[in-house]
Amino acid sequence: MEKNTKTNTGKPLETTKRLSKPRIFFGILCIVFSLVMTISFISYLLNWKSDQSQAGTMMDTTIESSNIFGKVGDWLGKLFIFDSLGVAAFLVAFLFLVLGTFILKKKYFKPYKTIGHALFFICWLPIFIAAIFKAQGTLSGVYGYQIVDFLDSIIGVFGLWLLIIVSIGLYFILEFNLRPSAIQHRYNTLKDIAFSKFNKKENSSEDFEADVALEKIQEDGNEIEKTIPAKKETISVSGMPVVPVSNTLDIISTPHKTSTEQTEKLNSGDQISLSVDAPKPIVKTEEDISFKVEIAPVVDELDEHDQKSQKLVSEFGLFDHKLDLAKFQFPPLSLLASHGNEEISVNQEELEENKNKIVGLLKNFNVGISEIKATIGPTVTLYEIVPEAGIRVSAIKKLQDDIALNLSALGIRIIAPMPGKGTIGIEVPRKNPTMVSMKSVLSSQKFQNTDMELPVVFGKTISNEIFMADLAKMPHLLMAGATGQGKSVGINAILTSLLYKKHPSELKFVMVDPKKVELTLYSKIERHYLAKLPDSEDAIITDTNKVINTLNSLCVEMDQRYELLKNAFCRTIKEYNKKFSERKLNPENGHRYLPYIVLVVDEFADLIMTAGKEVEHPIARLAQLARAVGIHLIVATQRPSVNVITGMIKANFPARAAFRVISSVDSRTILDSPGADQLIGKGDMLYFNGNEIIRLQCAFVDTPEVEKIVDFIGSQKGYASAFELPEVETTESSSSVGGFDPNEKDALFEDAARIVVSTQQGSTSMLQRQLKLGYNRAGRIMDQLEATGIVGSFNGSKAREVQIMDLNSLETFLNELKN
Ligand SMILES: Nc1ncnc2c1ncn2[C@@H]1O[C@H](COP(=O)(O)OP(=O)(O)OP(=O)(O)O)[C@@H](O)[C@H]1O
Question: Predicted ipTM?
Fold first, then answer.
């Protein structure tokens, strides 16, 4: 082998030596042909006029051609230049050259790229040339001429040029990557190069100045040499150019200072020591010094844990919490009804009449106004007045009842002053209010494009804008309203908006309905959206005892979530779920995707009356703490009295929604101010977000619509069961880890024991996977396994130790357990 690859001199053999003969033949043939073509084309371009008349006389020996390659050259030129491509024909010759070198395996060109470029220009160039030199057919060839002629007739001259420019522009953009960012990058690089060159130049100009100075000194020295030829050798001028330019030059001469005296000194043979005005060194100021800032790349070292999670993400992708119900479809808007015409109709007469009444009445009480403006909302019209200077706001406030009497209307509310407006507002109910349908608000851009975590759309404001709030930020909502004023519709509106936005894996409801009728509809979506205690039958809780257990269970869930968040170093559920999705949290350690949990209590007064502190305590605890772990409360009551809505509850429910209440005392209890007693009912509401009170018309969604929505969701594939809340110790139940009652063991206890023993792994998440269980149930089984001694105690992040070594021993053990 060595022999083949090396010559006698030991040099590797040239690649051409390994080429086959046909390759060499065809390669050289292509190159020669390319040369012949090029020369023929040049010759043709120079002589074509005289040879044109001889076209087609190839066989006629009497006729001579002036082309260097005779008639063949003439024929080639005519064929490629005149009849087809014009000057672009040279590119064809070039292509033969590329082909030849390619066959000979010479890497002078990148063949495919070069061929691509050449083909582009073979097409583009004739058109371009024909567009410029229309009359000169030879330059563009027939191809270019005819195409331009054709394009000219169909897209006109302007279109033709646009096509030419766009095509070449696109070619450059695509070929040379001329994106704005790339251009910017190149510009910056060029700037850097220019800048560094400039710096160099500056430095060299300094050097140059120094050189000039030195040269001058040298010349001067030479002059001195000339004047004192006798002492030539004593002056060490020759060493000067190498003397670095500095303030102190040791031996340098200058004609100005070379006085006769010095000459004499020289003549007398004394050693010369001349001081010279050395060229001033260029002292760089701070601005002159080139200053480059290099930002060191942030060394983002991944720790072992991050690397592991990145590997998992690259292998399996991000954790998709929706995967179990990947095909889940959100209910379509068509399930909702429109409830008549929602156009706000302007009744000019009514507006005029009300305005006159307000102005007249205020005048009677000597309250002058300088301006009045009306804004028409769905249920009320807001008249904003600007009182004349010197009028007290309290004077107008006092007139509330008089204005109401004068307008003979219910639900007049005076807002004095309007926050942030400098006016006084008088809300007057419209004679023909417009209903706000749930459909209209849910189909709005505002709702559809919202990025809120838990978007709740309440309805429309007085200025007809859709009003939405994020339940995750509220973070708990207290609702009040006398019977029949729209509270239940309001709850349905809230639930509906959440159902239209959140996937079942992201949201669970715990529904408490002591009235037993309002929320029962939602039991159809139990396996999708509801959460319940492990052993309870109904997901909608109506029994007060169960409510207490459920609330306590929610508190346990909250504590567990806090523990999980703490272990994951996260502050909020959002951060935690993000981390979990990025596979940074190990499910083996109990981590799981945490859905939001919304607790809805429809009649809170009822609960407080029957269970008192037992309910108040967990509610207050949840309200105080649960916001960060994604548990939010919506508590509604008919009777917003102080013994129902206690100070502790109120303090932790910053967001309040008030429908019409009976008395202003009730209004103060719920909103801390009067006003809710002035509402007109039918969904007319006040919303308090902790800062201001906003009057809204609640969106209307009636029972058949809700039914359609829950039917739609319920008919789809759901989870195996409702989301299980953690079990809590109840007074009735005695089952706990320590006191295991074999009669109360889980139906899957034995299967779980077999799995644990056969795999020798006491892991809850493995049980979850193998038996397809929820985390809580698997955890309970694991506790039972621990209580029976099959597995050891909880061991931090590691799996529990399995105490039974094989399945035979297990079967014996299980039999003993049964007896
Ligand atoms: N947003 C609304 N728009 C129009 N009408 C409404 C609206 N909300 C409620 N209503 C009307 O008021 C009636 C009573 O509403 P709803 O059942 O919600 O009252 P409620 O406060 O829940 O009463 P209760 O506490 O007795 O259940 C509805 O049947 C409907 O006719």
Answer: 0.96
